[in-house]
């Protein structure tokens, strides 16, 4: 039973938020979810449908005015410890949309970003590497929380 408990604590769930992207990065994220060559489940990760079950959040898009409040609300629903990953150049700097009138980004003005995966769109290999780095950060935070005696905390 110890083996199963240990395995479960090393299997983070991923949740994707589209903050106004062109869907190029979302297509590449789908590649890492459904094509066996780049399958994130090999890393012990699995996509989930609810932010309340997520451990790692993958955010695509340049963060538009229209969706900013919803993105922040959903991000706050993810329990601590969580890791935030900016997928693509748009959440990092605004990308080609940077000078647009509806762009609120970059994302790190509003949220703490733990991992940046640059590219337009990033290649599946880069996404896999970024998810692996995010998983390592998440595992360190889980261990730190265990040492402090803190269980997962749901905000709001």
Features:
5 helices, globular, five-stranded parallel β-sheet, alpha/beta, Rossmann fold
Work out the helicity level. 25-40%
What is the CATH level 1 assignment?
Alpha Beta
Q: Compute the number of helices.
A: 5
Task: Please list the strands of the largest sheet in the order they lie side by side.
Answer: 2-1-3-4-5
Return residue spans where pLDDT drops below 50 for at least 5 consecutive residues: 1-5
CATH architecture grouping: 3-Layer(aba) Sandwich
Characterize the biggest β-sheet: 5 strands, parallel
Number of domains: 1
Shape: globular
The CATH topology: Rossmann fold
Gyration radius, in Å: 15 Å
Secondary-structure class: alpha/beta
* Percent of residues in β-strands: 5-15%
| Global mean pLDDT | 88
The run of helices and strands is: HEHEEHEHEH
**How many distinct beta strands?**
5
Distance between the termini: 33 Å
Could you walk me through the main structural features you see in this protein, from its secondary elements to its overall organization?
- It is a single chain.
- With 156 residues, this protein is of the alpha/beta class.
- The chain has a single domain, classed as 3-Layer(aba) Sandwich (Rossmann fold), CATH 3.40.50.
- It has five helices and five strands.
- It has a five-stranded parallel β-sheet, sandwiched between helices.
- Helix 2 packs across helix 5.
- It starts with a helix and ends in an 8-residue tail after the last helix.
- The N terminus is likely disordered.
- One of its GO terms (molecular function) is oxidoreductase activity.
- Keywords: 4Fe-4S, Iron, Iron-sulfur, Metal-binding, Oxidoreductase.
- It is an enzyme of class 1 (oxidoreductase).
- Its cofactor is [4Fe-4S] cluster.
- Its EC number is 1.6.5.11.
């Amino acid at each position: 039973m110890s083996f199963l408990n240990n395995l479960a604590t090393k299997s983070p769930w991923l949740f994707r938020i589209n903050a106004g992207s062109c869907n190029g990065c979302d297509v590449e994220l789908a590649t890492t979810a459904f094509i066996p060559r780049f399958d994130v489940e090999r890393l012990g990760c699995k996509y989930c449908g609810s932010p309340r079950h997520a451990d790692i959040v993958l955010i695509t898009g340049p963060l538009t005015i229209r969706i900013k409040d919803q993105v922040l609300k959903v991000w706050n629903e993810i329990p601590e410890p969580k890791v935030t990953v900016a997928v693509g150049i748009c959440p990092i700097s605004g990308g080609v949309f940077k000078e647009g009138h509806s762009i609120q980004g970059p994302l790190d003005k509003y949220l703490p970003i733990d991992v940046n995966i640059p590219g337009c769109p990033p290649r599946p290999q880069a996404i896999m590497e970024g998810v692996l780095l995010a998983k390592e950060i998440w595992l360190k935070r889980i261990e730190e929380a265990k040492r402090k005696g803190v269980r997962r905390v749901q905000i709001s």
